[in-house]
Amino acid sequence: MTSAENLDRFRRQGRIVIVGASLAGMRAAETLRDEGFTGSLTLIGDESREPYDRPPLTKQVLTGWVPAHDTVLPRRREIDATWMLGVPASGLDLAGKRVLLADGRDVPYDRLLIATGVRARPWANEAEAALEGVFVVRTNEDSAGLQERLAAGPKRVLVIGAGFAGSEVASVCCELDIPVTVAEAAEAPLTGALGDMIGSVAARLQRAHGVDLRCGVKVTRLDGDEQGRVRRAYLSDGGTVDADVVVVALGGIRNTEWLLDSGIAAGVWGVACDTGCRAFDINGLVTDDIFVAGDVARCPHPVYEYRFLSLEHWANAVEQAHVAAHNMVSPPTHRWPHLAIPMFWSSQFGVNIKSVGVPILADQIAVTQGTVDDMRFVAAYGYRGRVTAAVSFDNAKWLDHYKYMIETAAPFPPEPFPDQAADMAPIPAHFPDPVIITHGATVLVTGHEPSERRVAAVSPYGGRP
């Protein structure tokens, strides 16, 4: 069989099943058809709605600018697929190549894409979580319900957790002139993702907008009235907060339980895969017919010393779905690695925050452009003399250049820029739970298009070996 015939066989034949009918699953389905796959395509999703966009749920939907039902993901093309919505996958039969469904049915496959994403972490006490007025924000229904309560004008909202989602909810409350208290176990907002220095900036931003920010404390208990409506929260420092709406923003749980005992390497950090998005089995052996994409994927990144990364980013889900779908219908010699540098953005308190790279894999940070006092700056992160990430506050125009520096293992701190900060002296990055890595940069990324992006070795002392 010729190379062209082999490629055509991969593209056209068989049955592909995608478990997870959200952003990654949808974009993967479209890419499969773009790549010429003409076989059977099935999408399985636990929600009854067709795929919708999640970033607006903590922003435009809560303010009432966009109705929750108007967040449907635009389709780039028709995908000619069988949709099985409102029924979750309950298991995977590797030997029989079947996806088991909660309603007792099963769906056979030749190739499978796992894109089951994450769900909101609920309040741990089930009785307290069931109180009227206690919300999480992950689904369309979550956001619609919270928006209705905010529009009714609650006396005070308590947000538990000051990560990106919690901070965005607090920002919406300020925009709607609703008194809001934020309780955060760390010493400042956003420190888990961006470190202490940026956390102190975020804390100042929140307080300047009237947020009652309580850091270094945990919520220990929620109380309700006789009608089962939440009324008060008790804090670990002995304080209390009276609130009639509580938003639990404690991160997500990756949807991997359905893979328990399946033989796939799945756990709390996601489904492990290689850079080609092929899933590992429980023995650490790569599979040839099972792929992973999106928030549930745990993928090694060569730029970050092959550390397995689990990323809950919109852009990562799209790019990884594209690579996974291409590789599903391509022979080994035509497959691509997923080498995209992570990017993330957030809008809160009138400021656009955008990051590139993986800030937590850093030991130093330096403000390289603008000034913190003006709340318009760029800060670069470094590890052992290499740029690993950057974050901007209302100054994102240079981030593509920082992305290039990350890909090319540029030295840290970087060379002077236009709009250079007055003080570029690096300081310790300080993360609440520091991630320890043991080596300097080992590779740089070459090429621009997915078909040509590869890595080349680089000396930890600078330049290629």
Automatic annotation (TrEMBL):
Gene3D superfamilies: 3.30.390.30, FAD/NAD(P)-binding domain. Keywords: FAD, Flavoprotein, Oxidoreductase. Residues 344-425 form the Reductase C-terminal domain. It holds the Pfam family Pyr_redox_2. One of its GO terms (molecular function) is oxidoreductase activity, acting on NAD(P)H. Residues 15-321 form the FAD/NAD(P)-binding domain. One of its GO terms (cellular component) is cytoplasm. Its cofactor is FAD. PANTHER family: APOPTOSIS-INDUCING FACTOR 1, RIESKE DOMAIN-CONTAINING PROTEIN-RELATED. This is Pyridine nucleotide-disulfide oxidoreductase. It comes from Sinosporangium siamense.
